[in-house]
């Protein structure tokens, strides 16, 4: 069952010392039913005004979807009183997207490699791996509740 | 968007995924396959010819389904993955775990 969406997108121009950037922010409740619309919305705004290859579009969709799923399911435990914040900083060369939840955080280095023979048959554990494979840079904050993904436009 | 289920004249249960297989609907597919195996169906094809996206939860659901069918002594085939979706299977090495064909017809004749 999908709860009513309360998505809000704000676009502002900002100057952060390296020319003009566009910021897109979005807040969504911890409801997996919101993920699809959130991904569509953020992807559309991230790619607006740029010639994006199919590779860039697909990679952005995948990593957004995976990061939002991790934040909602694992970070916030699908507690609908908690929120997930998306912040995308757009410059001509790249897209920098942060996804932050209200959970306690986790140690990304402790996540097992899903390609190990004993992990291949597991039903979970591929989301972070896909993110790492599909973007150029992945960073976490110290608490481990915020992931920052940088994708070069191709 | 959703799942449709038909029975091929050769007795293969064919499930078509229309739209996406993601965290929000993966349980529906697992339940559908569970019901099929409970009815005694042992040959299943899941066709992705009309699927735009599969997330890691969807991939995980397919792993669970594969295990269930294997334990029941059945066979599972996947077909119709576009290049993007195929790349996700290759990145996660799940292309080594599943029998994948380009078209549903190829899958049906391979049982």
What does this entry show, briefly?
With about 150 residues, chain A is of the alpha+beta class. In chain A, strand 1 and strand 2 (about 20-30) form a beta hairpin.
Write the layout of secondary structure elements.
The complex is a heterodimer of chains A (154) and B (111).
Chain A: E1 10-15, E2 20-29, H1 35-47, H2 54-75, E3 83-90, E4 94-100, H3 127-134, E5 137-140, E6 146-152
Antiparallel strand pairs in A: 1-2, 2-3, 3-4, 4-6, 5-6
Chain B: E1 2-7, E2 13-21, H1 26-38, E3 43-47, E4 51-54, H2 56-71, E5 75-79, H3 83-91, E6 99-101, H4 104-110
Parallel strand pairs in B: 2-3, 2-4, 3-5, 5-6
Antiparallel strand pairs in B: 1-2
Helix pairs in contact in B: 1-2
Explain this structure to me?
The complex is a heterodimer of chains A (154) and B (111). Chain A has helices at 35-47, 54-75, 127-134; strands at 10-15, 20-29, 83-90, 94-100, 137-140, 146-152. Chain A has a 6-stranded antiparallel sheet, with helices on one face. Chain A is built from 3 helices and 6 strands, in the order E-E-H-H-E-E-H-E-E. Chain B has a single domain (2-110), classed as STAS domain (Transcription Regulator spoIIAA), CATH 3.30.750. Helices cover 41% and strands 29% of the residues of chain B. Chain B has helices spanning 26-38, 56-71, 83-91, 104-110, and strands spanning 2-7, 13-21, 43-47, 51-54, 75-79, 99-101. In chain B, strand 2 (13-21), helix 1 (26-38) and strand 3 form a beta-alpha-beta unit. In chain B, helix 1 (26-38) packs parallel to helix 2 (56-71). The A-B interface holds A 2, 32-33, 35-36, 54, 58, 61-62, 65-66, 69, 73, 114-115, 120-127, 129-130, 133-134 and B 20, 22-24, 53, 55-57, 59-61, 63-64, 67, 84, 88, 91-94, 96-97.
């Amino acid at each position: 069952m999908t709860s009513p969406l309360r998505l809000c997108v704000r676009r502002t121009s900002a100057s952060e010392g390296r020319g003009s950037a566009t910021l897109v922010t979005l807040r969504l409740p911890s409801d997996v039913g919101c993920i699809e619309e959130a991904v569509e919305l953020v992807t559309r705004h991230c790619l607006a005004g740029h010639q994006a290859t199919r590779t860039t579009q697909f990679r952005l969709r995948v990593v957004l979807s995976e990061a939002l799923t991790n934040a909602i399911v694992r970070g916030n435990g699908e507690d609908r009183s908690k929120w997930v914040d998306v912040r995308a900083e757009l410059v001509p060369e790249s897209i920098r997207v942060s996804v932050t939840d209200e959970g306690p955080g986790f140690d990304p280095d402790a996540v097992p490699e899903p390609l190990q023979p004993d992990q291949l048959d597991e039903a979970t554990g591929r989301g972070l791996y896909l993110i790492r494979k599909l973007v150029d840079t992945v960073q976490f904050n110290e608490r481990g509740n915020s992931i920052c993904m940088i994708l070069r436009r191709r | 968007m959703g799942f449709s289920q038909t029975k091929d004249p050769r007795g293969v249960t064919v499930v078509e995924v229309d739209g996406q297989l993601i965290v929000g609907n993966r349980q529906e597919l697992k339940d559908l396959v569970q019901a099929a195996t409970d009815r005694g169906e042992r040959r299943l094809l899941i066709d992705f010819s009309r699927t735009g996206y599969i997330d890691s939860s969807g991939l995980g659901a397919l792993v669970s389904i594969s295990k269930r069918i294997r334990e029941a002594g059945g066979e599972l085939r996947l077909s119709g993955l576009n290049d993007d979706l195929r790349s996700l299977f290759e990145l996660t090495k799940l292309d080594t775990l599943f029998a994948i064909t380009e078209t549903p017809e190829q899958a049906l004749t391979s049982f």
